[in-house]
Design a protein that fits this description.
heterodimer; A: 9-stranded mixed sheet; B: alpha+beta; Alpha-Beta Plaits; 5-stranded antiparallel sheet
């Protein structure tokens, strides 16, 4: 098989393109997250008025989407290429279409559509307005103008472009099974390529089994409580009840405990361990942490050096 | 220079959701008309146009200039404008200067708040551009959308970011702006077919200039063209499009250039999936149209696309791929859902909340089954049908636990019916379940079977009574549980069924909530829920009757009958008979007499007189009294059976035959006689007349316009 374009080449093309547009090309966050939006370079930098441009490819874990590597479309972990442009530039739709061209897709011979799809993340206290981008009937991107983040109404509006890299690569190569995707050209191997399945199949099988069957429910509940408690403790020691900073901030560790809690919640959800009310309650608890983290970030920020994430 | 021109306004945006477009363009057209009216600029009928990337309005025959006019402007209070010796102050001079007149030209005017300095100025004629420039931004900001957004530096809010503005009067560009964007004569073409600026030479050439640039701006034309393109694709597949107007409208508003592409999928999906599921899957996920030939679904579909052609086949292949994936999912659910019987799912209903304070769907199912049983008894169903109705009620909501309904909520009911049929349930049972959610809209068809309609009434009456029992009563525009729609459906279903009586059913349904839901505090239990609920149902009945041509006073004339015995179909027949009677010669006299009778009886009641409907022979001595008494006796003997059999036209005709006797009575007899015995006997005659009329309709409620006046 001679792939049209490998997954890694497409990621590289996207990064090169967004570097040209002045983005910081960051690395994925080194923790479990459900979506690229949870990366601190998106969550925190969307707050406040400073301009910001960043791009990175974030592996995103969705335990409930795991299918033991048996489904040609759905996986426990997929790769979201994420771009934040703040404030949203006037020509962002054109920039997006050009980014497709950079990956070798000619919008001229496809039916590319911007179809209403508003986004909301109850755990992040975030909402946005925008579209899903459909190419020939297939959803390939989410295009969102954030309106709020961490429960804070945003004044300067960031736009988030999220590319489903596997989908786009399947499309470009006319491959129907995600595990057959060409990840890399490999002249040294018998097949000449390394596939997505070569790299991901085992992990998908095992992570699916863990999330659906093996994860210890009581232990995950305990871990969730522990993470939440630690996040609250760290936030409490950072600011007083009036939002005034009272000690050296430990916002980043607090936010990381939130990310932990969020992932543990996703596992419990996939495991079918949560009743409707319990599920709702946990979402609210994570959301409260998000709102507090956002407030602390904003109270640290004006006139002060932004904490590095 | 004055005259008229066509006015064009186009707001260029990023893709606006299709569902919002028609209303938004209509609102914009009205806003532009408001601007012109406010400035007293004459104009023709504004015409809204739209595509996903633009909201536009064309207004023909717009006056290009306003007439100049004199106006009086008030300034500072007189006590400030002139000093004690009557000399103008600095304030007066400043005011005069601002309006470009000499200080001596100022006058004093009396207002409600005292005397003020005033300047009479000549408002010069203004051009349409100036008017638009001044008011456009304010009007556009005032447009309402289901959801707005901000972008960039966040200063502006609109449905989507705005990119360009075209404002032309004839050929002249107007000096307006919106969200910091200056208007001009330059629009944009189709993103792919003609990307880039498009000069609009004049407002009249707007549609043509866009068409050249790949954009069909007229929504009805775009829709017609899409319909043709879809039909052509379907024909190529050997069939025709299964008509779907809402989908056609939606998809036509999702493209600027109306193209269509057909695709195919594996024939096994047609063979294995029920037609409804296949079509819903295509529609729900891909907004794809089904294609059929000779009543048979073909393994093909067609979609609207925003391109003119598919030179490399990508569009077709892509859509085929996605459609096949979706059908694969649907087939998976269909197979999974059939592994269990529908009845075995009923236990799981106790895990699905119907409404927090009204319990789960298991609770609701129990209540509806009970209502169905009493409804069956009330309507005299035979024991077999009674059992089937109750069975249908028990299974009706079980499909809420299926994967298919989880994936396609709009298939609730349909999935239940299909699964019940697959389980070998009785056909009457499966059809009742299948059509449970019909009618969803005011004009949608009713379930085709009797049991289906009865189940539908019971289900909706349970919802309504539950909501009313806990005080969730719609008011004004607030109706979060769509109770008006439920009530409307209940009325239509009951009307089609004839023998369903709603007052009794409401009482019975409310009993189901008598013990109160566990979580509801006693003070939130609504008192008098039954009266409120019956009134609410009557309002919906009134709306339905009005839709069928009944007048409001006619509807009021059956109100009392409904309060006692609410049979929608029977009420409609009474109204129909009344409508015919109203055209007859006797109507005016009889309705006038009925009003007179009502007034006399009301006065008598105030005085404490009790009508005596069976007085001694001796009490009625005048021929007119005896004549009316005899006529009433004969009429009653004929009217009672007619009313009982529902022949209200004949009943009213019989009532009309009383007219000579009634006329004579009023001519010859003074009702309020000094003698109490005579008085109550005469009142008794009137009460009998009223009772006879009220058994049909309350004629005294009808508005009577005398011939002379009318």
């Amino acid at each position: 098989m001679r792939p049209h374009s490998t997954l890694q080449e497409m990621m590289l093309s996207l990064s090169s393109y967004w570097i040209e547009q002045g983005c910081v090309v960051h690395q994925p966050y080194d923790m479990e997250v459900g979506a690229g939006t949870m990366h601190p370079e998106t969550f925190f930098r969307s707050l406040g008025e400073e301009p910001w441009r960043v791009a990175y490819c974030q592996p995103s874990r969705r335990p409930a989407d795991g299918r033991y590597a048996a489904n040609p479309m759905r996986v426990y972990k997929h790769f979201q290429y994420q771009v934040i442009l703040k404030p949203s530039p006037h020509d962002v739709q054109e920039l997006y279409l050009d980014s497709l061209r950079a990956m070798g897709i000619r919008p001229e011979v496809h039916d590319v559509r911007f179809e209403e799809d508003n986004w909301e993340s109850p755990t992040l206290g975030a909402a946005g307005v925008g579209w899903q981008v459909a190419m020939d009937g297939m959803e390939i991107s989410q295009f969102t103008y954030f309106q709020s983040m961490g429960g804070q109404e945003l004044k300067v509006i960031p736009v988030e472009l999220t590319y489903g890299m596997e989908r786009i690569c399947m499309f470009v190569n006319d491959v129907k099974d995600i595990f057959e995707l060409p990840w890399a050209r490999a002249p040294w191997s018998a097949d000449g390529i390394v596939t997505y399945g070569d790299l991901r199949r085992l992990a998908e099988q095992q992570q699916s089994a863990y999330s659906f069957e093996e994860a210890d429910i009581e232990q995950h509940r305990r871990w969730f409580e522990d993470c939440e408690r630690d996040a609250v403790r760290l936030l409490d020691r950072t600011v007083d009840e009036h939002g005034e900073v009272k000690a050296a901030p430990l916002l980043v560790p607090a936010y990381e405990r939130l990310l932990d809690a969020s992932h543990l919640f996703n596992v419990l959800d996939a495991r079918g361990a949560l009743s409707v009310t319990e599920r709702q309650g946990m979402i609210q608890r994570i959301r409260r942490l998000s709102v507090r983290c956002a407030r602390v970030w904003l109270s640290l920020r004006p006139g002060r050096e932004a904490p590095a994430t | 220079m004055s005259g008229t021109r066509t006015l064009l306004l186009e707001i260029g945006c990023e893709e606006i959701p299709a569902r919002m477009l028609p209303a938004a363009a209509g609102d914009l057209a009205r806003a532009v008309a408001r601007i012109l009216d406010q400035a007293k600029l004459s104009h023709g009928e504004p015409r809204p146009l739209w595509t996903p990337r633009r909201l536009a309005v064309l207004v023909p025959d717009v006056a290009t200039e306003t007439a100049s006019e004199e106006a009086t402007v008030t300034g500072p209070p007189a006590s400030v404008a002139w000093d004690g010796s009557g000399q103008p102050t600095g304030a007066a001079r400043g005011f005069a200067q601002r309006h470009g007149i000499g200080v001596d030209a100022l006058t004093k005017v009396e207002t409600g708040k005292g005397a003020y300095a005033a300047a009479t100025i000549l408002r010069p004629s203004r051009g349409v551009g100036e008017v638009l420039g001044e008011l456009l931004e304010k009007e556009v900001r005032g447009l309402s959308f289901p959801k707005t957004m901000r972008w960039g530096s966040g200063e502006h809010a609109f449905v989507r970011p705005v990119h360009w503005l075209v404002a032309l009067a004839g050929e002249s560009a107007l000096d307006a702006s919106l969200f910091g964007i200056a208007a001009g004569g330059t629009s944009r073409g189709h993103r792919v077919l003609a990307d880039g600026p498009v000069e609009i030479p004049s407002a009249d050439e707007y549609v043509a200039a866009l068409e050249v640039s790949g954009v069909v701006a007229e929504p009805e034309k775009r829709r017609a063209a899409l319909s043709v393109a879809l039909a052509r694709e379907a024909e190529r597949e050997g069939g025709s499009i299964v008509p779907d107007e809402p989908l056609l409208q939606e998809t036509a508003d999702m493209v600027e250039h109306p193209g269509a592409i057909a695709g195919r999928f594996d024939v096994r999906f047609v063979e294995e999936l029920p037609r409804e599921i296949l079509a819903t899957c295509l529609r729900h996920h891909q907004r794809a149209f089904s294609i059929s030939a000779g009543g048979k679904t073909l393994p093909s579909f067609a979609v609207a696309v925003n391109v003119a052609s598919d030179p490399e086949g990508h569009v077709r292949r892509g859509n085929e791929w996605v459609v096949s994936g979706r059908l694969e999912d649907a087939l998976f659910f269909w197979r999974e859902d059939r592994r269990r019987s529908l009845s075995s799912r009923s236990d799981a209903l106790s895990g699905i909340t119907f409404q927090r304070e009204l319990g789960t769907f298991a609770d609701k199912t129990e209540r509806v089954a009970g209502l169905c049983a009493s409804l069956a008894d009330g309507c005299g169903l035979d024991p077999e049908d009674r059992d089937r109705l109750v069975r249908a009620a028990r299974l009706a909501r079980c499909d809420l636990t299926t994967g298919l309904v989880g994936e396609f909520p709009e298939l609730q009911g349909v999935v239940g019916g299909l699964l019940a049929a697959a389980d070998g349930e009785n056909e009457e049972v499966t059809r009742a379940i299948y059509h449970l959610y019909q009618p969803a809209g005011a004009s949608e068809e009713l379930p085709p079977t009797r049991l289906g309609r009865m189940l539908g009434v019971a289900d909706r009456m349970d919802t309504l009574s539950g909501a009313f029992a806990i005080g969730l009563i719609p008011s004004g525009s607030k109706d979060p549980f769509a109770l008006r729609r439920s009530a409307h459906a209940a009325i239509r279903l009951a009307a089609a069924e004839g023998t369903i009586e709603l007052v009794g059913l409401a009482a019975r349904a409310l009993e189901g909530h008598e013990e109160g839901p566990p979580g509801l505090p006693a003070d939130r239990r609504a008192n008098g829920a039954q009266d409120t609920l019956v009134d609410f149902l009557y309002e919906r009945f009134a709306a339905l009757a009005e839709g069928e041509g009944a007048r409001y006073d006619e509807i009021a004339s059956v109100r009392e009958i409904a309060a006692a015995r609410f049979l929608p179909e029977d009420l409609l027949r009474r109204l129909e008979a009344l409508r015919r009677f109203r055209e007859s010669d006797d109507f005016l006299a009889l309705a006038t007499a009925a009003k007179r009778v009502r007034n006399i009886l009301a006065q008598a009641e105030d005085r404490g007189d009790v009508p005596d409907t069976s007085p001694d022979e001796a009490a009625l001595e005048l021929p007119a009294e005896r004549g009316l008494g005899d006529a009433l006796g004969m009429a009653a003997a004929r009217i009672d059976p007619l009313t009982a059999s529902g022949d209200y036209t004949a009943a009213l005709a019989t009532l009309a035959s009383l007219r000579p006797a009634v006329d004579r009575f009023f001519d010859d007899v003074l009702v309020m006689d000094e003698d109490q015995g005579r008085r109550t006997a005469r009142l008794g005659l009137l009460a009998r007349f009223q009772g006879l009329a009220h058994g049909i309709v309350d004629l005294s409620e009808l508005v009577v316009v005398s011939r002379a006046a009318g």
